[in-house]
Specification:
mainly alpha; single chain; 112 residues
Length: 112
């Protein structure tokens, strides 16, 4: 996840690291994204499923944006380092890039 965050921040001009050195920002943001994705996100997506169906997936994009902002806020607030997500569309692009890079990294390492 840290590798995926680092690649995403390097590619997208709408995402910036906060704090020094940047690797700590990548790692802190990735830590909170992983914790949110493993704990809260599945429950919220199931609860929001009817709204997501009606809105053709827009609700899922908004939930992902909220969770990225939340992970950013937690990382910067607790550790003083993190990644600042510029806006809604930057988070949508970041989600796509992080999914692709995470998939490639999992394939290289051999994790399914």
């Amino acid at each position: 996840m840290t590798i995926a965050v680092a690649v995403t921040v390097l590619i997208l001009p709408g995402m910036h690291t906060v704090g020094d050195p940047p690797i700590f920002g990548f790692a802190a943001f990735a830590l909170f994204m992983a914790l949110i994705n493993a704990s809260i996100k599945p429950i919220v997506h199931v609860l929001a499923l009817p709204l997501s169906i009606v809105s053709f997936g827009l609700a899922a994009l908004i939930i992902n944006w909220i969770f990225m902002r939340f992970a950013s806020w937690l990382a910067i607030g607790i550790f003083g380092v993190g990644v600042d997500v510029g806006g809604f569309w930057w988070s949508v692009l970041a989600s796509i890039i992080m999914s692709i890079v995470s998939g490639i990294a999992a394939a290289v390492v051999g994790n399914d």
